């Protein structure tokens, strides 16, 4: 019996496509996926990876250091009780928020500016999606990345707080509400920096200009407003209104409302952020309304900039 | 033309940018094949294309794509491809990755998108270079990526805006060959917008000429380049004797390079040319009626008072500006 070698001809090269085609939903998903990859530098050269991953590393390190601190410090008091107020998830946001803001300032514009600068937006807008589909997908992509960057270090810190406690199960039982709290506070920060960052990016085709402007806005307003609000010669009724204009502190007002309890660390560093101290003179409803305005207004500006854009 | 037959149709299409009229009640349709959209810079070609793609809203009239309103139907864009005139490529992404993304953005599933990206890059001759960042590509290679991105999702119709812009003569030839091959082998209809008449003449089956936002000519390219009443006769030697013999037979002629050009409509013209050749002893190399080129068509229009301006490819910029 003889065997015959079987050959197969592969027709390589361009061919007509008869498979499934998605509509706007698939197009939006593709823009979203590309936005996440752009934000993290995936599929791009090493230069595109440096800043996002350095910021993620720095944010994670801040959480890791705090976790190591709570693990190494003996929290059993002489009377046998356990001290659990050394530091909290709120302290992490207070400490690392500037990293999150700088991450947003540097990475956020990368999702919008290059598309307009090099004309890729012209290719998107002739595909089955609208300008607002494109914008929503980009916004969602960066918001997702910001959420991950804000939340992941909190889980590192949570691990430190749980396993550094003499009674891990007891810690979880007593503090399980911290999880939705840090998720909520992280959500508030991510929502704010995503919308503000992309709104600024909508005004220029150069990512560097938007990044410098945003970073400057956060840093300058932080130090200027905290400088004013630390000046006790100015009456508290004036200082509490000035405090509202510290752009870095606006989402931290939400953090303060969500985590109302104080810790040893927050007590020790309270003097560092007088704008937040001054702003606490306002009712929570006003702080929430102020935060909402600072999310809604940049959102509207972003929509207005893109509603007629064509590359 | 029946709406069902036309891939694109402009119905009194009008677009104003403030006081500037880009399109002025333009009426035309595009059927299967390669259609050249010809006109000088500012004639309204790019505006028309952008209206069909939904990038620009018309001031008046209606733009139809596959028989449906271009400004309302978004999903049909998955069957359209667009190659813009200007830069539209990211520099820090590799070509394979970019094309995969563009295919997905047109609605293809990820696996098929990846496979088609590779196949399309092979089609445009960039398969070996597909893992290089686009920023490292030459101008010609970038033009090929631009063509590839508009083909990757297998559209029924592609609109190419000045596809040979910035290319050297060799690159231009290759691009036009690719355009022709795309229709001939895969049946993808093409609208080729250009101000270079040679590109249209070499590539297109039909032609639509826009001037100041209006359609001034429309028809098959062959109808513009039909045989003229001019006869070209190339002889190896004794050209003067041949011309004298023609003159003796009352056939007016002139010399143009190595050819003797005869513009006559006499019924027995070829008999008289034959006799003049025999009497002069000139040896015939080639003889035949001459075809009009598109350039001549528009040069004639220019002489007649209109300001036709599409220019032959390769003309120096000063000549182009003069023509414009």
Q: How do the strands and helices of this protein lay out in sequence?
A:
The complex is a heterodimer of chains A (311) and B (324).
Chain A: H1 24-40, H2 46-72, H3 89-107, H4 113-117, H5 120-125, H6 131-163, H7 168-175, H8 178-201, H9 207-229, H10 236-242, H11 250-258, H12 264-268, H13 274-279, H14 284-306
Helix pairs in contact in A: 1-6, 2-3, 2-6, 3-6, 3-8, 3-9, 6-8, 8-11, 8-14, 11-14
Chain B: E1 8-17, E2 20-30, E3 34-38, H1 45-52, E4 60-65, E5 68-69, E6 80-83, H2 95-105, H3 110-123, H4 139-151, E7 157-161, H5 169-186, E8 189-194, H6 197-203, E9 206-211, E10 214-220, H7 221-224, E11 227-235, H8 239-248, E12 253-256, E13 259-263, H9 269-280, E14 284-291, H10 294-303, H11 317-323
Parallel strand pairs in B: 3-8, 3-9, 6-7, 7-8
Antiparallel strand pairs in B: 1-2, 1-4, 4-5, 9-10, 11-13, 11-14, 12-13
Helical amount of chain B: 25-40%
Low-confidence stretches of chain A: none
How big a fraction of the residues of chain B is strand?
25-35%
H and E string of chain A: HHHHHHHHHHHHHH
DSSP helical segment count of chain B: 11
Structural class assignment of chain A: mainly alpha
Q: Strand-residue fraction of chain A?
A: under 5%
Shape estimate of chain B: elongated
Q: Calculate the terminal CA-CA distance of chain B, rounded to whole Å.
A: 32 Å
The major beta sheet of chain A can be summarized as: none
Condensed summary:
The complex is a heterodimer of chains A (311) and B (324). Chain A is an all-alpha fold and 311 residues long.
What key attributes describe this structure?
heterodimer, A: 311 residues, mainly alpha, 14 helices, 68% helix, B: 324 residues, alpha/beta, disordered C terminus
Describe the structure.
The complex is a heterodimer of chains A (311) and B (324). Chain A has 311 residues and is mainly α. Chain A has 14 helices and no strands. Chain A is globular and about 85 Å long. With 324 residues, chain B is α/β, with parallel strands linked by helices. Helix content of chain B is 35%, strand content 27%. Chain B starts with 7 loop residues before the first strand and ends with a helix.
